Amino acid sequence: MQVSEAKKKLMPKPGFLCFGIVDNCMLRCKMCYKWKEDILVENHTNVPTMADWKRSVDSLKDMTDPGFLINFGGGEALMKKDLLELVKYCHDQGFRTNIATNAFLIDEDMAKRIADSGLDSVNISLDSLDEKIHDYLRGVPGIYKRVMNAIEYLDKHCKNFEIEICSVIYNINQDGIIDLAKWANSDSRINWIVFMVPMQPNNSPDYLEHNWWENKEYDFLWSKDTDKTCAIIDELLNLKSQGFKVSNQVCQLEAFKNYLRYPGSFVKKSPCNLDKALHVSAVGDIFICYGWESIGNIKAHDLKERWYSEDADNIRNKVISCTRNCHFLLNCYFEGDYPFGLE
Ligand code: SF4
Ligand code: SF4
Hints:
Blueprint: H1 5-10, E1 16-20, H2 50-61, E2 69-73, H3 83-92, E3 96-101, H4 108-117, E4 121-125, H5 131-138, H6 143-157, E5 162-168, H7 177-186, E6 192-196, H8 226-241, H9 250-261, E7 277-280, E8 285-287, E9 296-297, H10 303-307, H11 310-319, H12 327-332
Parallel strand pairs: 1-2, 1-7, 2-3, 3-4, 4-5, 5-6
Antiparallel strand pairs: 7-8, 8-9
The structure holds iron/sulfur cluster (2 copies).
C-alpha cells in the first residue's frame, strides 16, 4: 500500500545505499563467517538478473540527488562476475560508485577493467602493516601482499580515483593502528583511511547479540584494555585535528569510545539515522535496515515504490526507536550527534 502524496513529501530521500551484490567470499576472516552458508539467506540460486539491478538503478534516479553514491558490498563484491558492467551502468547514469573489497581479485587486469568501468573509489580492507597479523585475521596467507599489489595497480591505471583503506581496531592489531594511520597519511596513493570497531561476526548466532564480546569463541576480537584502546582512538582524533587523512567524523570516533566502554548501551543520544538507508541483499531483498523485515524484492518490485510504501514507513518507525549498537550504525553510516556535529 502507498502512503499519501502529502506524507511522501515529509519522507527522507535515501542518504545511504548499499547493494550487497554477492554473499560469498574467498577469504576466511576470523571476524566474519560470510564464507559459510549464510544462515539468513534461504535461496542463493534465485538471484536478481542484471536487468533487475539496472532497473533498480533507474528507479533510484528519481529519488536521489545528482552524484548520489552507490556502494557495492558483499561478501566480496568483485566475486560477482558482471559487477563492473553494473558499475559502468551506474556511472553512465550519473551516480558515483564505490566497491568495498578485500583486494584478493585485484590484479593488473582487474585494475584496468576497474578503470574502464568508471568506478570512483574502492575501500580496501587492511588491518595491519604487519603481514602476519593481516594474513592471520583474514585467514588466507598472502592476502597482505595482494592488498599491496592492488594499491599499486589501481594507482597505476585508475585516474580521478580514490583509494580508502579500511581498518578494524581489534585487540590483536591495535598496537599498529597509529602506524597504519601514519602510513596511509604519508603514502600519496592513499586518499583516506577509515577505522571501524569490532562487531558481532556475520553468520554468528542471533542469541549472542547482547554479549557476543564475552563469548569465548569471539572475545579475542574485543579489546582487553579499554583505556588503551580509547587512548589509541584519542590519538586518531589528534591526528585528524592535524589534518591527517582519517575520514571518520569526530563524533563517530567519540562514539567508538563509548561503545568500547559500554557495548550494551546505545551510543547515540539521538535516534538511529538508518531510517534514510536503503540496502539490497544478494538475493534482491530490499531493506531499510537488515535488522528489520524486508520491504520487497527487486525481482518483483520497484525500488522507488517500495521506498515510499507504507511498509517502509512502518520499518522507519521501528528504526527510530531501535537501540542496537550495530555495524551499520556505528561503522557504515554514522551521522552527527549532540554535542558533535559533522566534522
Ligand atoms: S570480512 Fe569481508 S573479506 Fe572477510 S570473509 Fe567477510 S566478506 Fe570476506
Ligand atoms: S540501530 Fe537498529 S535500526 Fe539502526 S541500523 Fe542498527 S539495527 Fe538497524
